[in-house]
Amino acid sequence: MNADKPKSLGRPKRADQRYSTNETIIAEAARLFMEYSYEPVSLNQIAQVCDVTKASLYYHFANKAELFTESLVWTLSRALSGTERVLKESSDIRSGLERLAVVKMSTHHVDFESMMRDAAPHLSEEQLLRIRQAEHGIHDVLSAHFRAAMDSGLLRPADPLLLSHALNALLMLGNRPQPAEAAPSTAELAKTLIDLFWHGVAPEQ
C-alpha cells in the first residue's frame, strides 16, 4: 500500500467554522490516526482533509509527532468524559457497559497498542508519558465504577484495573471481521460481549 494514500480519505473539506483551525486540525488528525495508525498518515493528507496548507500545519504544530500526541490526548480526553457520562447516566453498571460497548464498536479504529508501537520510535519520552496518562485516566474511571459495583455486591471481588483492561481488550473484537459478523448488529454484539465479560465462560451453578 502506498504510504501517501492509506485508502481513500474522501473529498477535501473546508474546516468547520465552529472550530478554530487548531481544533479542526487536531480533530481530523485524530480521526485519521485512529483509523490508519501513525505511519500511513502523512502531514500532506491531514492538510488536504483540513483544507489548509502544510505550512499552516507547521504554524500550529512543530512536526507529526507533536500533532499525533495532541490528537491522541484530545481523543482520550473525550473518551474519558464520554465514559464517565455514560456510566453515570445508566441505571446500572451492566447496562452502562453495554452502552459503552456500542459506542466503542460503532467506529472502526486500529488497535491502540499496535498504533502506539507504530508511533513510539518517533515520540519523545514526554510525549509517550502524556498519551499514557490520558489513557490511564479512562481506566481509572472504569476502575472506580467496578470498585463501587463490588462494594455494592454487584460484582465479585477482583482487581478493578485488571477488569478495565480486560474489558477494553474484549471490545476490540468488534473491529475484527469474523467476530463482528457473528451478530446481526453492533448492539447485539455489544450485548453478547458484555454477557461474556459479566458471566465468564463457566457453566451456571
- CATH superfamily heading of the largest domain: Tetracycline Repressor, domain 2
Succession of helices and strands: HHHHHHHHHH
Q: What fraction, in percent, of the residue positions are helical?
A: 55-70%
Q: What is the beta-strand fraction?
A: under 5%
Write a structural description:
The protein is mainly alpha-helical. It folds into two domains: 1-61, Orthogonal Bundle (Arc Repressor Mutant, subunit A); 63-199, Orthogonal Bundle (Tetracycline Repressor, domain 2), CATH 1.10.357.10. The protein contains ten helices and no strands. It has helices at residues 21-36, 43-50, 54-60, 64-89, 93-105, 112-119, 125-151, 160-171, 177-181, 186-199. Helix 1 crosses helix 4, helix 5 packs across helix 10 (186-199) and helix 7 packs across helix 8 (160-171). The longest helix is centred in the last third of the chain and has 27 residues, at 125-151. Mean pLDDT is 87; it is low at 1-16.
